[in-house]
Amino acid sequence: MNARSILMLQPTEQQQHATLPYETSAAAIFIAARIHDLAFRKSQAGIAAEAGFPNANMMTFLKNGRNKIPLDRVPSLAKALEIDPAYLMRLALD
């Protein structure tokens, strides 16, 4: 493989942002911090299950900004994260 081929395989800055479109959102930053705060008591898989997500990877997607918070999951996610549902709803709508 030559240098040009290698450069073509690397994602552009625009492509990187497309895969994590919400990484700088207040919701993603808050969720990441809250998961970190609860890590001594709850696993990400436990939080995901408590919030009703069938796949534990959803918590990673939310905290990394790959996905927005599904509005129908706000109440259960707020309970799992031990936070005010109204505050999480405001973050989700932002």
UniProtKB/TrEMBL annotation:
Source organism superkingdom: Bacteria
PROSITE patterns associated with the record: HTH_CROC1
Residue ranges annotated for the HTH cro/C1-type domain, each copy included: 64-88
Name assigned to this protein: HTH cro/C1-type domain-containing protein
Biological source species: Paracoccus tibetensis
